[in-house]
Design goal:
single chain; alpha/beta; TIM Barrel; 15% strand
Length: 246
Amino acid sequence: MKLIAGNWKMNLTPSETKEYISRFLPLVEDISDREILLCPPFTSLCVAHELLRESKVKLGAQNCHYEQKGAYTGEISLNMLKDLGVSYVIIGHSERRWIFGESDELINKKLTTCLQGNIRPVLCVGERLEEREAGLTFKVVETQIRLALSGIEHYTDSIDIAYEPVWAIGTGNPATPEDAQLVHAFIKDLLHQINPQHAGKTRVLYGGSVNPKNAGDFMKMKDVDGLLVGGASLDPESFAQIVKSF
């Protein structure tokens, strides 16, 4: 089943989340052939959980710590998220990598924790502009995936991957659907090399300046299994249009 995920990043207060969901759910209540995921900030997870409890819309978090408890000021554990009905966690988003300095080793620890806790992670990978211009897209993406999956290669059926070219995120300049298809096909071939038995069970999403006008074109691509939407997911009507775009 295709997955359409909205990553709200550091946006929308709990009261704004309540209004958003009250407007969004009626727009997608008849949709059953694709999975819809909302990933609000930590402060809105509780209210979102209560409002989504009776719906088909899934709840996700934008990050988690690799330990379950302890002296980690400012962090959130997987058990805390599970208690709020979270079923997905975004791991390794480019903003976590480049702004907060998350390493591939740390991302691997977080993925391992998610798998051990039966929460499905969405692993984000993607190249920066200078890497793309140097012809290093495939090398960068392969390195990120192999290091992230180190020691957990046999569990690729429990992981989704989002290809988000860093140069396209929030810029209004997305990759073309054809460019995305090339990288998605490469990722799926790589996953087949890593774990032939379960490669087909990993969905590969595209993210990076997705909007209602281009979402359908991305979803026409053979190896695009869904979308990870940023800014365009902050408006319920806009995100509903994306969900219904294919």
